[in-house]
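Issue: ligand-bound run for magnesium ion - logging full I/O for the record.

Environment: standard queue, default settings, no custom constraints.

Inputs:
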Amino acid sequence: MSELHSSLRFIDLTTVSEGCGLDLTLLAYPSADHQRIKEVIAELLANDVQSLAFHLQVGKMIPFLLGKGGRGMVFMGLREQRKVAVKVLRTDAAVKTMRFEAENLRHANKEGIGPLLYSWSSNVIVMQYVDGQSFGRTIATSISRETAAIIDKTLEQTYILDTVHLDHGQLTNASDHVIVTPEKTPVIIDFSHSSRTRKPKNVTAFASYLIRSINLTQSKDQNLVSALKHYKQNKSRTTFEALKQAIAHELLKTF
Ligand SMILES: Nc1ncnc2c1ncn2[C@@H]1O[C@H](COP(=O)(O)OP(=O)(O)O)[C@@H](O)[C@H]1O
Ligand SMILES: [Mg+2]
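Outputs:
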């Protein structure tokens, strides 16, 4: 456990209520609505989340935030003695329920993609806690054989998503939407903008992100650009393999 995590205290949710000395406002962010805080705690318990990690911030015990997005606030909890990530719907989110995100995450899970979904209800998603660093950080340092292997594995996952018609929707900015575990496994997270009706563009979105962020076309190699075009025109294992090879070839030049 990291130094940061060792300062965390897991607090039993059955003992948690307003006026118990904890600052619970993050559970209904940003409105801090009292009723919503109660609902979220009740939903967490109904989803078998026994406790939530808290830490001290400017003299107050507040829920430990794993991450904050436009749709949700992600906390760390314990469910059946296992560390879990708990995504709580923001009160100002564009949607009223976690239902669609949960259903699409379950769909991705069937293909071995995304954090495992354990349980969900209207305001919360309880899923596998993914320990690791963001993809953005992973590629920011330097590109190595190891990073190239991570990129290859991520591309495979985006191809699977394309074939099962699940468009992630946010892979043009993969920096914060892929977590790389200490075992070097990339995990695609955040299915909040995913769709099973939109035309899937996972491979092309992720490839465009790579081209942009690693500056793969620096060498003016037209091979990659045309491989991308061919895949767009005809999504098949053959065009995908050609694209993967073109990316790998470009990455080699950056080592
Ligand atoms: N399963 C998870 N395990 C660990 N951290 C997570 C997990 N899901 C989300 N996070 C963290 O929370 C942040 C916000 O989550 P995200 O799903 O992207 O929310 P939003 O839909 O609001 O953008 C992520 O960038 C990541 O840092
Ligand atoms: Mg997000």
